[in-house]
Amino acid sequence: MDLYSDTVSRPTAGMRAAMMDAPVGDEQKGEDPSTNELTELARQLLGKNAAVFLPSGTMCNQISYAIHCRPGDEILVDDTAHALHYEGGGPAALAGALLTPITADHGVFTADELDKAVRPPGRHAPRSRLVSIEQTSNLGGGLCWTLDEITSVTDTAKGHGLQCHMDGARLLNAVVATGVSARDFCEPFDSVWLDLSKGLGAPFGAILAGEVDFIEEAWRLKQRWGGAMRQSGIVAAAGTYALRHHVDRLADDHDHARALAEAISTHPRVSLDPARVQTNIVIFDLIGTRTPAADLADRLLRETGIRIGAFGPSTLRALTHLDVTSSDVHTAGKAICALLDVVE
User: Fold this and answer.
1) 44-97, pLDDT tens digit by residue?
2) Which end of the chain is more exposed for a tag (fewer CB within 10 A), N or C?
3) What is this structure's pTM?
4) How far apart are CA 238 and CA 195, in angstroms?
């Protein structure tokens, strides 16, 4: 049982059939019908004028940062942001931009905190150029930005002349959890991307959306950075299938995550508030034990075959996804608690 990440989810039988039957052509010439179908579907879902299919969400972030920024510019993110910790220093290497973290509550900062973080103009300082938010917040435990929080932060950003970007790695989890449409969440942003893997279950890929000029420049960087694809419709069809069949079922992942959180939160060696589990991510801390989180995760895998992730000396993370059942969650909860009973 793999709860390390929702990126381990595998294509369903229906998705594989859609991939097998996908009509294809040369994407670079705009002649792949399956890729064109996906980008049009996603463009409408996100409420933008143009979109491009890319291999990964990380590439979406890096292309967006490079378009919005010039070398020496500053990107404001929360202090747990994926781009800050897990994208290989891409903004510095590829865009020459500085990532400045804002200390935030579970990955969600306020308009006032953003206002204080924006630098006043000056020749000696980096130019604050872009604010980037992550929906949902990964290391924030899958917490959703509310529409009011987004509107407040983007209004403040625009008041300072900043561009706004959404890292939509789990955007549709937020849509399902809150009932707010993807279009409404995305409306204030100059660029946004949607991950097709993770809970949606496609084998890879993401859609980057924005205005026509922005996406035209994104195509240029896609080519420059080696992301050009030919008959990409085979995998684009998986994304289309996911958007048509796997969105509503994200609610099951959320239910499973809450069930897991409730099962382990009662253990005296676990610090976790199940009420804060809004989507499919369960992050919890160990208390009253000398066992490092990484050692506990390794032992859990060896002894039970259940994989979770260690994200600090005492912090562990488990994610639910379409390959995880309610029975799996029950088994995992019992196994984690049983192991905590016997570790030092």
Assistant:
1) 999 999 999 999 999 999 999 999 999 999 999 999 999 999 999 999 999 999
2) C
3) 0.96
4) 12
Find the DSSP H helices in the chain.
Answer: 13-21, 33-46, 57-68, 82-85, 90, 111-117, 147-159, 171-178, 182-186, 212-224, 233-245, 250-265, 293-304, 326-342
**Element of type H or E holding 317:** strand 315-319
Amino acid, res. 68: H
Model confidence at 241, pLDDT cuts 50, 70, 90, reads very high
**Token pair for 242:** 């996911």
Cα distances from 250 to residues 135, 174, 201, 286, 307, in angstroms, run 15, 10, 10, 28, 21
Tell me which H or E stretch contains 5.
none
CA torsion through residues 322, 56, 91, 64, sign: negative
Return the H-helix or E-strand segment holding 91. none
Position 245 scores a pLDDT of 98
Q: Taking 90 as the threshold, does the pLDDT of residue 228 lie above it?
A: no
> Which residues contact residue 344 at a Cβ distance below 8 angstroms, ignoring those fewer than 6 apart?
289, 290, 291
Contact 215, 193 (CB under 8 A): no
Q: Match 């206002």 to its residue by tokens.
A: 115
pLDDT at 344: 85
